């Protein structure tokens, strides 16, 4: 969390990477739809007042439950949580939190290939935030307000995995991968 000394106002950051969607075609090439990275401003009453220690698995569960509640409220089927997808999402979030990977969708195709499931479409939502008492909730709010991320959330997918990682600076990285499994 950062503070503006003259006014003592808490400032926090939420950054969303563009929603990424990949649909394999018979020649094994893929098409991508990207929107520009977006920064969102959140009211200061939703900002943590101290550096929090986050339970990343609880945050993952929270994202999963919020996304499924949204889908059900819009008459879409619930997503099933998949351990292999979650593993790849966690690895990406951990790599971003440790500075081993940039905050981006770079390597998305490799993450999906490492899941070892037959699929006909896949997508990924990313979020980075700092200074919030509930970083999972802030990420979901940001995704729901972003057309590209919302398209992924509402997409024709049946499986998902969520990975969350935080570092010593209080930065929280969230990755959600969506798949439409053919099995």
From TrEMBL:
SUPFAM superfamilies assigned: PR-1-like
Superkingdom of source: Bacteria
The keyword Phosphoprotein is annotated on this UniProt entry: no
Cleavable signal peptide: 1-17
CDD domains per the UniProt record, alphabetical: CAP_bacterial
Q: Which UniProt keywords apply?
A: Signal
Name all SCP domain ranges: 65-178
Protein known as: CAP domain-containing protein
Species for this entry:
Amazonocrinis nigriterrae CENA67
């Amino acid at each position: 969390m950062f503070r503006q000394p003259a006014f003592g106002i808490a400032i926090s950051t939420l950054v969303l990477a563009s929603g990424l969607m990949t649909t394999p075609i018979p020649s094994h090439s893929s098409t991508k739809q990207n929107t520009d990275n977006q920064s969102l401003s959140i009211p200061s009453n939703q900002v943590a007042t101290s550096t929090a220690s986050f339970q990343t698995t609880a945050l993952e569960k929270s994202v999963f439950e919020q996304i499924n509640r949204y889908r059900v409220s819009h008459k879409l089927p619930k997503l099933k949580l998949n351990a292999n997808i979650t593993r790849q999402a966690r690895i990406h979030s951990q790599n971003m939190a440790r500075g081993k990977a940039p905050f981006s969708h770079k390597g998305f195709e490799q993450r999906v290939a490492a899941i070892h499931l037959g699929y006909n479409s896949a997508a990924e939502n990313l979020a980075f935030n700092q200074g919030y008492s509930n970083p999972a909730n802030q990420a979901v709010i940001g995704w729901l307000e972003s057309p590209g991320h919302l398209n992924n959330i509402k997409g024709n997918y049946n499986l998902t995995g969520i990975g969350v990682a935080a570092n010593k600076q209080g930065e929280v990285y969230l990755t959600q991968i969506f798949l439409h499994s053919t099995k």
